[in-house]
Design goal:
The chain is of the alpha/beta class. It is built from 17 helices and twelve strands.
Length: about 450
């Protein structure tokens, strides 16, 4: 293979064969293809796209660039979910445990924060002792004994994706739907799954802010995953406001603990979690219809079974055994907690959710550079939802900050992110569409 000829073919709008794609990805992982050539390939795909067959071949090639996990000795289906990212999106921390309580196994490979969105791995890192990147032996042992383990991508799983993504991030090619599809699915296929539920966000806090873009991505993921042997359903969900009423790493772990124990539950977070759980149970043949699946998920929460599994997972991966009983003893707290006040009376009609995510990064809860250390204690809590009526001086949220300077910057961003009006807004449906592959 001559890499530049393959790049030329894609640059000029040609379709690559599966063999060409496999050889190019093999060259990426072996070092035979240079970083400059990988970047040129990404740019050619960005401008010219890929057919479904090309997307399937790229996904499979990236999947097999490293270890592919095998779970044939497990008695239940291997299931997972993936979100395209949002603010206050704490679903993974409660859904994996509920599915495990229903008889599924969830070997969840999660990521760190990307752009303005929070990462599941960063949230778990706020738990003292939690080993978010164990070796594959401990990962496998935890999944088998507990039912789930939520960890980060290891060097063994889809290494081609790690290399390609790093170059996409610095060459302005992140927003390519074929490359997004292959990136997400190569890791999921390498995890050895039997079924996947996708949560594709749209709205002011999503990467795919426009519904048409979210719909295109959802169709791409459902089609490519199914063609690659991984049955997948995608839900397009609203991200025009935070999903939970808190955002920030330790704050979201506390939200998850409160949800699991029943101490406090946010309805939007619960509804999206149950909807995705329904898709997973049906795909995994653990329920025959939606009503049965919904009842099982609800029972997993109400019985305490999901909470018990979360506690066991945390302990198995090095965290405290009594985290659920004493979360405030273990989770870090910000030095300064103060409210952001409404400056006028009216209904909250709009929230620039992306700006909330950016404010959290400014507080230290996300990364401006890859090497930045995150402060897990900072963030926002008691966030008011769209449709709430406020009097002037009512708190819109609480800001958890390291110091007064950080607070002042976040306060200004939050005041501008919330729009108030005298007219009560019509509320957007939480789940906008359900997408399945036309190959099923």
């Amino acid at each position: 293979m001559i890499p530049q000829e393959l790049i030329r073919k894609k640059r000029d709008g040609g379709a690559l064969s599966a063999n060409e794609i496999y050889r190019f990805i093999d060259g990426m992982t072996s070092g035979a293809v240079s970083d400059a050539q990988i970047a040129a390939f990404a740019m050619a795909v960005f401008f010219n796209g890929m057919t479904r067959d090309e997307r399937v071949a790229l996904t499979r090639a990236m999947t097999h660039s490293g270890t592919v996990l095998e779970w044939s000795d497990f008695p239940g289906p291997m299931l997972d979910k993936h979100s395209t990212g949002g603010i206050g999106d704490t679903v993974s921390l409660i859904l994996a445990q509920a599915i495990a309580a229903c008889g599924g196994y969830v070997p969840m490979i999660s990521g760190r924060g990307l752009g303005h969105t929070g990462g599941t791995l960063d949230k778990l890192d706020s738990i003292p002792g939690y080993l978010s990147q164990p070796d594959l032996a401990l990962f496998r042992k935890t999944v088998k004994e507990v039912g789930t383990a939520i960890i980060g991508q290891t060097r063994d799983l889809a290494p081609a994706d790690r290399k390609l993504y790093a170059l996409r991030d610095v060459t302005a090619t992140v927003e390519s739907i074929p490359l997004i599809t292959a990136s997400i699915l190569s890791k999921k296929l390498a995890s050895g799954l039997n079924g996947l539920a996708m949560d594709v966000k749209t709205g002011s806090g999503a990467f795919m802010a426009k519904l048409d873009d979210a719909r295109e991505l959802a169709h791409s993921i459902a089609d490519v995953a199914t063609a690659a042997g991984l049955p997948t359903t995608a839900l397009i969900t609203d991200m025009n406001e935070p999903l939970a009423d808190a955002a920030g790493n330790a704050l979201e772990v506390k939200v998850a603990i409160d949800h699991l124990t029943g101490a406090r539950r946010t309805q939007k977070l619960h509804d999206v979690t149950v909807a995705l759980g329904v898709e997973m149970l049906i795909t995994g043949k653990l329920a025959s219809h939606q009503d049965e699946a919904r009842a099982k998920i609800e029972a997993a929460f109400s019985s305490g079974a999901a909470a018990s599994i979360f506690s066991k997972m945390v302990a198995a991966l090095g965290g405290p055994k009594d985290l659920l009983e004493h979360p405030d003893q273990y989770l870090p707290h910000a030095h300064l907690i103060k409210p952001a006040f409404a400056e006028q009376e009216g209904y909250i009609t709009e929230i620039s959710t992306r700006d909330l995510g950016v404010a959290i990064i400014g507080l230290g809860g996300g990364r401006k550079r890859a090497e930045d250390q995150i402060d897990p204690s900072v963030g926002l809590s008691e966030l008011l939802p769209i449709g709430t009526f406020c009097h002037k001086g009512d708190p819109l949220c609480l800001i958890h900050a390291r110091n007064e300077t950080d607070f002042d910057l976040a306060h200004a961003a939050i005041k501008s992110a919330f729009k108030l009006s005298s007219t009560k807004p019509a509320l957007t449906p939480l789940i906008l569409e359900r997408i399945t592959s036309d190959l099923t």
